[in-house]
């Protein structure tokens, strides 16, 4: 085949591939990265990124097949992780994308940390399109600049080390072969784009840029979904808190009303018992009927004013119920006269000896109003506490 026909064939291959350009996501099995790492003997590369933990393996190093005669052989002391880098630079010079000289698992960790995708290049030295692709496309200024700015690049020879495993897993349809992969976890990757066959620098950059744009759009959509889900969860949590607060308030009100009802019943029973014991029993009369009638009438007239003075009036009896809630959840209720002052409530609260209160003030919740030292001389009737009120202890 002549050089012109070879170029035509290369262009035809490129056009055929781009017409069926693969754009679907393909997830590799999670065992690929782990299996590839185990297939290589543990060797320390000359340059390894900081913070990467590389597992040690104790299997003997495999016997790699020899490279074709067209590919220069690096010195034997070069670690396997740097084999592709050394061979590529010896063949095509030092102007090329920065390929990390380490295992694929380490490159995935670097990409995850930097928030980038991985550009994978599988190098087949014996393929007729490899030479023009590497010199004309992969080592061109625009491709080198674009890859170094946007990707973490990694390369391998298809017949050696992890290159063999990646070729078996990705199954390239033709060479040159490039792929854009993204780290999913420490043991799996996702193939976002495949480039098979020779392409020009502008075509390669266009494909890679389109991949970046698509992933950016997908990422924004995912972030929008996450924000919407978080907003819905926040609204649901807020609604649940509101319902819980409403239930708690209803339970507290019901408990207070029940306590008030029991206290009123006890007070009525106590008052009835006191009235029954204080009533004097009639003595047998030794007077004549007429005389007894006159003395009874006289006694009634004399004792009537005294009776009016001893009967408790609405203004003096303890008819104001005050419920006090303490910070520890304890509740105490006491009856006061509506002519008593707020100072009496403070005295009563202090006499209970509830621990951990310190300085405090009395607060009415609804409508909220504070009764501090300036209101100590206000009587309960003027404060609106009759017939009952609930006060909270607010620590200062």
Automatic annotation (TrEMBL):
<dbReference type="Pfam" id="PF00789">
    <property type="entry name" value="UBX"/>
</dbReference>
<protein>
    <recommendedName>
        <fullName>UBX domain-containing protein</fullName>
    </recommendedName>
</protein>
<dbReference type="InterPro" id="IPR006577">
    <property type="entry name" value="UAS"/>
</dbReference>
<dbReference type="GO" id="GO:0005783">
    <property type="term" value="C:endoplasmic reticulum"/>
</dbReference>
<feature type="domain" description="UBX">
    <location>
        <begin position="315"/>
        <end position="393"/>
    </location>
</feature>
<dbReference type="InterPro" id="IPR036249">
    <property type="entry name" value="Thioredoxin-like_sf"/>
</dbReference>
<dbReference type="InterPro" id="IPR029071">
    <property type="entry name" value="Ubiquitin-like_domsf"/>
</dbReference>
<dbReference type="GO" id="GO:0036503">
    <property type="term" value="P:ERAD pathway"/>
</dbReference>
<dbReference type="InterPro" id="IPR049483">
    <property type="entry name" value="FAF1_2-like_UAS"/>
</dbReference>
<feature type="compositionally biased region" description="Basic and acidic residues">
    <location>
        <begin position="259"/>
        <end position="273"/>
    </location>
</feature>
<dbReference type="InterPro" id="IPR001012">
    <property type="entry name" value="UBX_dom"/>
</dbReference>
<dbReference type="Pfam" id="PF21021">
    <property type="entry name" value="FAF1"/>
</dbReference>
<feature type="region of interest" description="Disordered">
    <location>
        <begin position="259"/>
        <end position="319"/>
    </location>
</feature>
<feature type="compositionally biased region" description="Low complexity">
    <location>
        <begin position="47"/>
        <end position="57"/>
    </location>
</feature>
<feature type="region of interest" description="Disordered">
    <location>
        <begin position="38"/>
        <end position="72"/>
    </location>
</feature>
<dbReference type="GO" id="GO:0043130">
    <property type="term" value="F:ubiquitin binding"/>
</dbReference>
<feature type="compositionally biased region" description="Pro residues">
    <location>
        <begin position="58"/>
        <end position="72"/>
    </location>
</feature>
<dbReference type="InterPro" id="IPR050730">
    <property type="entry name" value="UBX_domain-protein"/>
</dbReference>
